[in-house]
């Protein structure tokens, strides 16, 4: 079966799919064509089911009823997550009086920050453009994701808020649900389960061949050094990535319980693949 798989031009996604896309791990059931897009573009594309499998922000699951969440391939922070940076230290009240650059309205980072500080003025931009916009004073603060959350100091900015730390305390240690992979529900649970196992095997292969998988992921480093990319990959490709288990499922459910309570997402049914 030929299927389309969307993922982001980010090193952690590339690491997960290394085994699959290089043919190191094969499947008798699937031939994969991969499509690479920024996460917010994938989020929006998923609202009108186009790709068979796609990476999306967890937040996007509130708006994509045609998909089922896979148990493998999730990006969960364990005690860490998105951060807010600025050119100087600011209080929450000061931040909310200004404008915050966000990496997209459907990103999990945006939803988490709204849960943390309430509603605020924002401007959307590609996540990789946010640090420079903050440094140049085009915005008052920036909501930072991916590897840029590790390089803000080198970019001349300071950390103002740590959304991952807030979530960790708020939920008594649940992992921070950020990104996941989903598959068209119409393909059927048997097919979804088979692909889930295929993706899990690809992730496990990457973890077992770490140096080779990191080297492959470096094509999406955006000029960042290998040491930083390796640190980032190890942060977001972890045991919950291999299989979210009960704790990952609980984290996703908790996020949407909190968001529904604040009326930040519509009422919807969460579809998660069978164990």
Q: How would a textbook summarize the main sheet?
A: 6 strands, mixed
Tell me the total number of β-strands. Answer: 11
Structural class label: alpha/beta
- Helix/strand order, N-terminal first: EHEHEEEEHEHEHEEHEHHHHH
Report the span from N to C terminus.
Answer: 22 Å
List its salient traits.
275 residues; alpha/beta; D-Maltodextrin-Binding Protein, domain 2; 2 domains; six-stranded mixed sheet; five-stranded mixed sheet; 11 helices; 11 strands; 19% strand; globular
List the helices and strands and how they pair.
Elements: E1 2-7, H1 11-21, E2 31-36, H2 39-46, E3 53-57, E4 67-69, E5 75-77, E6 83-86, H3 92-97, E7 99-102, H4 108-117, E8 121-124, H5 130-135, E9 141-144, E10 158-162, H6 163-170, E11 176-184, H7 189-208, H8 210-217, H9 226-236, H10 239-242, H11 245-261
Parallel strand pairs: 1-2, 1-3, 7-8, 7-9
Antiparallel strand pairs: 3-11, 4-11, 5-11, 6-9, 6-10
Helix pairs in contact: 1-7, 1-8, 7-8
What does this structure look like?
- This protein is of the alpha/beta class and 275 residues long.
- It folds into two domains: 2-76 and 177-261, D-Maltodextrin-Binding Protein, domain 2, CATH 3.40.190.10; 83-170, Periplasmic binding protein-like II (D-Maltodextrin-Binding Protein, domain 2, 3-Layer(aba) Sandwich).
- Helix content is 40%, strand content 19%.
- Strands 1, 2, 3, 4, 5 and 11 form a six-stranded mixed β-sheet that branches.
- β1 (2-7), α1 (11-21) and β2 (31-36) form a beta-alpha-beta unit.
- α1 (11-21) packs across α7 and α1 (11-21) crosses α8 (210-217).
- The longest helix has 20 residues, at 189-208.
- It is globular, with a radius of gyration of 18 Å.
- It starts with a strand and ends in a 14-residue tail after the last helix.
- 45% of the residues are buried.
- The model has no long low-confidence stretch (mean pLDDT 93).
């Amino acid at each position: 079966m030929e299927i389309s798989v969307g993922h982001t031009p980010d090193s952690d996604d590339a690491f997960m799919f290394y085994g699959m896309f290089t043919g190191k791990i094969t499947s008798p059931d699937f031939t994969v064509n991969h499509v690479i897009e920024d996460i917010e573009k994938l989020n929006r594309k998923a609202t009108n089911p186009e790709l068979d499998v796609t990476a999306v922000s967890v937040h996007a699951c509130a708006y994509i009823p045609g998909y089922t969440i896979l148990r493998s391939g999730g990006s969960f922070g364990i005690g860490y997550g998105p951060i807010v940076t600025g050119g100087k230290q600011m209080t929450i009240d000061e931040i909310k009086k200004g404008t915050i650059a966000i990496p997209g309205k459907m990103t999990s980072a945006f939803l988490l920050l709204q849960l943390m500080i309430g509603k605020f003025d924002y401007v959307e931009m590609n996540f990789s453009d946010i640090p420079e916009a903050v440094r140049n004073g085009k915005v008052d603060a920036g909501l930072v994701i991916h590897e840029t959350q590790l390089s803000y100091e080198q970019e001349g900015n300071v950390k103002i808020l740590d959304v991952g730390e807030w979530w960790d305390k708020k939920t008594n240690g649940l992992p921070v649900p950020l990104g996941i992979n989903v598959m068209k529900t119409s393909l059927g649970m048997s097919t979804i389960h088979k692909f889930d196992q295929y993706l899990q095997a690809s992730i496990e292969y990457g973890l077992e061949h770490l140096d080779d998988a990191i080297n492959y992921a470096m094509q999406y480093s955006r000029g960042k050094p290998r040491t930083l990319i390796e640190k980032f990959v190890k942060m977001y490709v972890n045991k919950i990535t291999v299989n979210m288990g009960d704790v990952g499922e609980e984290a996703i459910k908790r996020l949407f319980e909190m968001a529904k309570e604040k009326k930040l997402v519509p009422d919807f049914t969460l579809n998660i693949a069978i164990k």
